[in-house]
Amino acid sequence: MYHVAASSCEICGEDEMHLVSCKMCGAYVCPQCVTHDTQLCLNCVEARCQICGEYLASRACNICGRLVCEDHGMKVDESTICDYCRKREA
Predict the structure, then answer these.
(1) pLDDT tens, 37-77?
(2) CA–CA dist 65, 79 (Å, integer)
(3) Does the pLDDT value for residue 1 go beyond 90?
(4) Average pLDDT value for the chain
(5) Tell me, what's the pLDDT at 2?
(6) What are the domain boundaries of the chain?
(7) Torsion of CA 49, 53, 55, 61, to 10 degrees
């Protein structure tokens, strides 16, 4: 979806007449800062859960370092263990 306004991209700061709204976070970004296939801004693409890709990651696995969402990372004491590492250790 395009938002027509004389504004600047929320990622790179470029002044742009046509900004695209990210489907995940709603940020208004220029066409260079959005993926055209998913309509997600570059920040959301990098911050998505590396297991499901559906939600933004809220933490990183303390074993493998994968970024995971609430559904795919389990808190164990002060650590987070992703679904892959839990299955591997079971």
Answers:
(1) 999 999 999 999 999 999 999 999 999 999 999 999 999 99
(2) 11
(3) no
(4) 91
(5) 53
(6) 1-47, 49-90
(7) -10
Q: Token pair of 61, please?
A: 């696995």
Q: What's the alpha-carbon Rg for the chain, to the nearest Å?
A: 17
| Cα–Cα distance for residue pair 26/58, rounded to 1 Å | 18
**Secondary structure class of 45 (helix, strand, coil):** helix
- For residue 25, give the nearest of 55, 52, 67, 53 by alpha carbon: 55
Length of the chain as a residue count: 90
Prediction pTM value: 0.76
Tell me if 37 sits within 8 A of 31, measured CB to CB: no
Phi then psi for residue 46, to 5 deg, are -75, -25
CA pair distance 8, 81, nearest whole angstrom: 39
